[in-house]
Amino acid sequence: MTNVNAADIQGFVLRGYNFPVARYLFLEISQDNGRHFVSRLTPQITTGEPWDKKPRSTVNIAFTYKGLVNLNLPTLALFSFPADFVQGMKERGAILNDTGKNSSEHWDLMWNEEQVHAWLSVDALSANELDHRCAELQELMQETGGAVVIGSQDACAVLIDGKYTNTEHFGYTYGFGNPDYLGVMRNSGPGQGKLEYDGRWGVLATGELLLGYRNEAGNLPDAPVPKLLAKNGTFMVYRKLHQNVAAFRNYLDDQGRRYPGGREKLASKFVGRWRDGTPVELSPHHPDPDIVADHNRNMNFTYSSDLNGSRCPIGAHIRRGNPRDAFGFNGQLVNRRRIARRGVPYGQYVPEGLPVRDEDERGMIFMALNASISGQFEYICQQWIEYGNDARQGIEKDLLAGNHNGRGRFIITGTEDPSDPPFVCGNIPNFVEVRGGDYFFVPSITALTMIAGGTIDPR
Amino acid sequence: MAVSGLTIFSPILESDAMGIEHASSVRRYLATLPRTHNSPFARVPSTHFARLVVMDDVVFVGAPAREEHLTSRYLLFEATFDSDLDTYLARMAREIPDHVDSIWSHCVGYPGAVDPTAFVGYMKKCQVEATFSFADVSDRTVQQNLKALQVQSALAHFIERNQGRPATEIQMAFGVLLESLAKAPPPLPGGIDSETTAAENGTHD
Amino acid sequence: MTSSIDGKTAKRWPRDPYRGLTYYTAGDVPLFAGRESDIDAVCGSIGLGNIRILLLHGLTGCGKSSFLRAGLIPALEDEIAGYEFLRDEKGRPDFVRSTDDPTASLARAIHRFIKREYSSAPESRRTDARDVNGSSNSLRYEPKEGSATARTSLVLDVHVDEAEFVRAVAVDTQKLVRTVEQIASQRPRTFVLVIDQVEEVVTLKPDSMGDPARIQFFDFLADLSRSRYDLKMIICFRTEYHGQFYAQLRYGADVSRINDYYLNDFTEEQLLEAILRPTSREQVPGYGVPYDHYRFDYEADLPGEIAKALLARGLSGGVLPALQIVCRRWYEAAKLKSSTGTDEEDGEITVPVRSNAEYGLVDVEFNPKITPFTIKKTSYTTLGRVAGQVISYVQSELEAALKEPFAERVRASGRRNEIDGWRRVLTSLVKTQINGTVTTNVIPEEALRKEAARKGCKIEPKDMLLFLSDEGRRILRFVDVTKHTTKEVIRCCSLGHDILASALQEWSERARPESYNSIGGTVRDTRTASNVNGKAYAMNVMTPMEPWKSPILRGLFSVLSAVKPLQKDLKGLSSNHFAQWVIVGRDRFPHLSPRQPREDLRYDYLFFFSNFNGTWNQYLDGFSAVLSRGLDLIWRWSEKYPGSVPVIPFKGYINQVQFDTDYYYNAYPKATINDVKAALRVHDALESFSKSSQTLSSAEFEKAYLRFLIGVLPDLGSTGMAPEET
User: Fold this and answer.
1) pTM of the predicted model as reported, rounded to 2 decimal places
2) Taking 80 as the threshold, does the pLDDT of residue C157 lie above it?
């Protein structure tokens, strides 16, 4: 198959921009002038075409169901969107276990009071650029009268020693593990796609990411009509995840004191990667910068020789998020549950050792891209993060992201090596709290033009 | 294989006036039956799983398949249980005769549970042999499974509690654990976890 | 076309070889076949000098009216000659429809007949005219110019005004008898009165035993039976009422003057004759050779099959109309194919729908333009057999209505609903009798219109009723019923033929949603809690299998090499506690009492019961992802199984064939199969560890315990509540 038409697809869908600063503007769309605004905006939207030179800033847009309603899409087209998108994240809170501290009553005001219709994302190389671009967009909104900003969220890569890094607030290096899809060109290495029968790594079906293409189940993913509205589009899950850094560091200290392998090792067991990114499966005893730096190795591992979790605990975060071949059948039960992630941290980073408060605004803007919200993101969240049966872990939740409410267990199988013993962590607090979010439809450029022009014919 | 299955189709009596009454009565009765440890099947503890379905008709899958209909309705009873069929059915008649009567009295030719032999004979007349059965765990009884779940839960708590303690202490505590497990009463079928009771009592955390 | 009595020109073939639902008329004489012996017998019976009244009866739908119009009457008039009938305004032999007051109906018919054939003297009574009885109220009636048969004048005590005449007859039925006798005496040939559907005197007013109209009628018949004039009366009615009639007749009438004849329903030979007549190579006297005109044949033994199928159908509405409908459909389809030159092996055959205007008669006798063609067996099977042909006939007429003339009244998307609405309106005319026969009701037109409005029909009821009652269509008939109390005449509707009644009833059965969708047809739209207990879900699936495929499936299940990989994968997938596949042969549904009706099924049924963990979607995704080969091997023998890959049609199929549980019990609701297996491993590990650790020293214990931990820790996930269903 040839490559997908990158010019028709919004850029961040195909690969992360890796710009250090970003601002997400949440808009309310005017029923009268919304289309006009979209039509003026569309030429500015950053597509997936490769850059000769990095632009100074990028612009992308996505819409909630209510946003599409206000853009006056035909009723039949609106009805044809999948139910998960139409209901939105707040209404589907029970599926995601957004209860207790994660329930929407604790979310940022804009998600509860206002109607969020669109997500307008600006990534930039510097804060100045960011402000500049955002100002231009504000002008456009005012000029057309098509949209109003009802909330915004800044995000920024963590600065350590004056350099932008890929570290998030708990101290882990992120950005690994985005899947390879058929027809999508990107820099990658082995281990990101799916396992073929002969043990080599292949690519996932395009339809796991983009609508209008065949997916791993052999179908076209459930998509709105008409075809042109859906093709090359995708669905985005946006979730603001507040991080209780103090609680985490305390817990790590507390458990780390009891764990013979030490604090850093324990931290690596929680996630399945050392904090520098070394996969525990490849190097269970110490981090290894060489592996991290090597694209051919830092994703290239499986769990089939570690089914009891001696090296990488069965409940470790990345093993829950992508079990690879841990469920047998050569990973076939996993292939249709993969998502592409574009997370960026937000809030002020506090280095280890310095005092930090949980109340402060800091955390991760989690964004996931998938063709089927219920089949992919919601499935992972419900079955693998908030539950453990597929991994034979009973009802245990993911240590890092689970909604524990002080209960639960994290089990490290360990080995007979005294520095690597069996270990059980209990009484797990909530390290992550959900503070807002929703489901968005990311249209292709063609679809944007159709939406703007009001030329959608659902038959 | 310790575990067996049964599939029993009992024709439901046609009612005098309209052919609905008996089937509805069964349905209504089944809707009121408790489903956890208070279930009548909990009193036949060799039952792993049991289901009852009032089957109105066969399915029509669409042309070019031909459409056809059953002349009678059937009460379908499908269950997985320990030991052999005769013993299990006789046990049903002995342990829960009232419930059995309430359910099967709506069926053709039902002799009553008062004579277990007659009941077993009746049920076997209605039985259809399975062409193929699958049991992921085929060699453990309900009691053995429940006991194992009890052990699993107790052991997990034990390990967490005794983590980091010196070996001698663990060894002693371990002995205590084994004793208590041996003495522990068999768990009730139909509901095991303490969280269940918490939920049922409304004391969810 | 018209009888030779009137001296009109040569006889013509009807345009279509099969009549459809309308009655045979005199124009169909050349096509009316199969009743030759009956005609002979009846003619003989009537011919007996002393016989005054013939009771002609048969079961519903045996074709009495057709027999009369296209068989008996033409035979009596043309072949035998010597008889003449009451005539209608077009000069055609006519018979009177009884309604609930046959005497009045007769009186009206006679009055009109007189008016047509005679004119009364314009002056008031001539006192010198006396009628047979010497009554001085008589009038002289002179034959009109151009009257076919009136030769001499009549002196009748008949009022000029029809209503008055009817009233007078009601008071004194003798008056009617005298009038008829008068007419008969002046006619050259034997005068025959025919009155049809006399059961209406009973059926239209079922509650009134002492009904005056009924009494009058039997009085009239009693009088007529004693008449010495050369006249005959043929009374047609349904056999079901023969007993009642005869009992009442006996009281007054001279039974030696009354004969009866039972017209049986078609035998197979008679049916064959009827089917084959249009293809016959034999001369029909006065008309020619049918084949020369219609130019078609049936393939070899197809007519025999059709005849058998028609009889096997047990049509309570009579077999002849069914034959007319189905043969016509096949004929038209075959003719269309041959004229358009389409290939014989074509799949789709559509029957052209013709509006009323085309059912006229043609002037050509011999049509060399038609290329001879054959109705083949393949057409017969493709178009569907007899069963349902009548239904589709009604359906196609309704569809034709929606295309033209009522096209603008209903949107394309609403057509199905509209047709269904009219089906239900027509069904309100279906009456099921106690003995199971299905006939037609007679309902006031007003009520039927209201019914149509209630059913949400968009087409104006008045127009549609007219359309349906059209001569060429005859799905509905209008009949006037007199309310006996108020004497007001109400316009009523009935089904054109009883065979429509049984067809409509069957159509309604098929359309009824509840009885057919209670299990398999329903799409599961809500997750019923009754399917779930704790973390287990009870799935019940049933699929139909052709019986010859069941042994294959049984065989497969008994072959280890087929079964072992399946078991291994099922254990690997680890989503089922237990599952069973049960084949119930079509004759194996338990039968426990002679009072329990036996099942009459064509399919075997494959049942699948599973106790699984996870959501419904998750479960089927898992099957589709990793178990497709094994699953397909089991379910490919089931009707319409789409395969387990891709997953969307597979889930659609399961949705269709799954049925819900009423009660579900789970001995360990908080444990998935994974939990159970883990617990068993833990239990067994603990057992062996506890045994071996009894005698260990502290240091040894530490080591052993460590090893034990590493062994059991992966299996110590907690059991408890599962997440909500997606």
Assistant:
1) 0.63
2) no
